[in-house]
C-alpha cells in the first residue's frame, strides 16, 4: 500500500488560511450596515493578504518536492551468500550490502558476477537465479549504469523477476567488466544523484575485491 505524502498539509495550509480569510472578510462586509473609510482600507489589505497566501500555496504545490509513493515490497527478508566464496569476499559483500541497505533507499539487492549470483540481501524475490536480459547485458557491454526510475513503465521489467514483484525502481551498476550490482527500491524516482555516486563508489571497490579474491581462489 502506498504511503501518503507527509508534506501535503504544509503545502495546502496557505491556500486554506487565505481562502478562510477571504470568506470571513466577505461575511464581515455583508453584515456591516455602514462601511467606514478605515474599514474599507482594512478590507483591501485583508483581500491582498488572502490573495498572497493563496498564491503562495499554489506556488508551493509546484515547487516543494513531494515524497515519492513508497510500497511494502512483497517477499521475505533474507541474506544469502554463495557458499564457495573466500572469507575476504564474503566480508566485503556483507559490508557493502549493509551500507547500501542502510544509507540509500535500496530495499533489495543482488550481486551478479562471472555468471553467478554471489549475494542476495534485503527483501528477496521468489526466483534466486539471474538470467541476464537486454538491460543487464547492455550494462555489462557498455560499462555504464542504468537507472530505471519507475520500473512499472518499462516493458523490460520482466527480466528483473529475481527482485520482489512490486519493485518500484532499479539501478544496475557495473562491477568492473564481469559483474553487475542490481539494486531495487520501494519507491519510484527515489534515488538521488548523491545515491548514484555512492553506489558507483561501492561498486568500484567491490570490483577490486572480487577481481583479486575470486582470481586467487579460482572461483
Automatic annotation (TrEMBL):
Report the record's Gene Ontology biological process terms: cytochrome b6f complex assembly
Q: Would the keyword Transcription turn up in this protein's UniProt record?
A: no
Q: Report TM segments.
A: 12-31, 43-60
Q: Which Pfam families match?
A: CCB2_CCB4
Q: Which residues form a coiled coil?
A: none
> What InterPro entries does its record include?
CCB2/CCB4, CCB4
Which UniProt keyword terms apply here? Answer: Membrane, Transmembrane, Transmembrane helix
UniProt xrefs under PANTHER family: PROTEIN COFACTOR ASSEMBLY OF COMPLEX C SUBUNIT B CCB4, CHLOROPLASTIC, PTHR34943
What is the name listed in the Swiss-Prot or TrEMBL entry for this protein? Cofactor assembly of complex C subunit B
Q: Which organism is it from?
A: Fischerella thermalis CCMEE 5268
Amino acid at each position: 500500500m502506498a504511503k501518503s505524502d507527509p508534506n501535503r498539509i504544509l503545502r495546502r495550509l496557505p491556500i486554506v488560511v487565505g481562502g478562510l480569510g477571504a470568506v470571513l472578510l466577505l461575511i464581515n462586509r455583508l453584515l456591516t450596515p455602514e462601511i467606514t473609510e478605515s474599514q474599507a482600507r482594512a478590507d483591501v489589505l485583508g483581500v491582498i493578504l488572502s490573495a498572497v497566501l493563496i498564491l503562495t500555496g499554489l506556488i508551493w504545490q509546484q515547487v516543494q518536492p513531494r515524497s515519492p509513493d513508497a510500497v511494502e515490497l512483497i517477499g521475505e527478508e533474507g541474506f544469502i551468500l554463495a557458499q564457495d566464496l573466500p572469507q575476504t569476499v564474503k566480508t566485503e559483500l556483507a559490508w557493502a550490502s549493509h551500507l547500501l541497505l542502510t544509507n540509500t533507499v535500496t530495499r533489495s539487492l543482488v550481486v551478479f558476477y562471472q555468471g553467478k549470483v554471489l549475494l542476495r540481501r534485503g527483501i528477496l524475490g521468489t526466483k534466486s537465479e539471474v538470467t541476464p536480459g537486454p538491460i543487464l547485458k547492455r550494462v555489462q557491454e557498455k560499462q555504464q549504469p542504468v537507472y530505471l526510475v519507475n520500473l512499472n513503465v518499462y516493458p523490460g521489467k520482466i527480466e528483473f523477476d529475481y527482485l520482489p514483484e512490486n519493485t518500484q525502481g532499479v539501478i544496475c551498476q557495473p562491477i568492473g567488466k564481469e559483474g553487475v550490482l542490481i539494486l531495487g527500491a520501494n519507491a519510484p524516482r527515489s534515488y538521488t544523484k548523491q545515491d548514484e555516486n555512492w553506489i558507483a563508489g561501492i561498486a568500484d571497490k567491490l570490483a577490486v575485491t572480487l577481481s583479486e579474491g575470486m582470481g586467487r581462489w579460482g572461483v
